[in-house]
């Protein structure tokens, strides 16, 4: 015959449910359809008990799957949407920056760049995007070191 505390413990264990507070501590955890905890990284159910979830977090399976899942998510989030700039446009911007450094005030590039873009439509000059900040950075970081 089983002791009374084992019967109580067994009924208590069977009635455990997912606790929404766990989501704060374990961001990869969600509730399964049957009330268990579900690991989004490993695609497996975990018994809804805090110690079991901690053990799963430290398991080899979870550690091997988590970085791959996070890496995919980060790639999707952090993929820059920067348009490609041709080498001709880069060369023209550098030449303008050098001309400004040698012959004019750098603040003049704001107006000069707009004029060049307006009248250079359809050519390489129509794609130039340079103002005083970019001009200063090009002079400091590209032209000056060389």
Automatic annotation (TrEMBL):
<dbReference type="InterPro" id="IPR036236">
    <property type="entry name" value="Znf_C2H2_sf"/>
</dbReference>
<protein>
    <submittedName>
        <fullName>Uncharacterized protein</fullName>
    </submittedName>
</protein>
């Amino acid at each position: 015959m089983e002791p009374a505390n084992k019967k109580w413990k067994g009924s208590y264990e069977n009635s455990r449910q997912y606790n929404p507070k766990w989501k704060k501590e374990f961001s990869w955890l969600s509730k399964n359809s049957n009330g268990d905890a579900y690991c989004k990284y490993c695609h497996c159910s975990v018994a809804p008990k805090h110690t079991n979830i901690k053990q799963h977090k430290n398991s080899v399976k979870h550690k091997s799957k988590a970085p791959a899942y996070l890496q995919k998510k980060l790639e999707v989030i952090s993929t820059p949407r920067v348009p490609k700039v041709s080498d001709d446009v880069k060369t023209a911007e550098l030449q303008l920056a050098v001309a400004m450094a040698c012959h004019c005030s750098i603040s003049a590039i704001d107006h000069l760049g707009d004029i060049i873009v307006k009248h250079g439509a359809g050519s390489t000059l129509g794609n130039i995007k340079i103002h005083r900040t970019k001009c200063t950075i090009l002079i400091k970081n590209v032209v000056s070191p060389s």
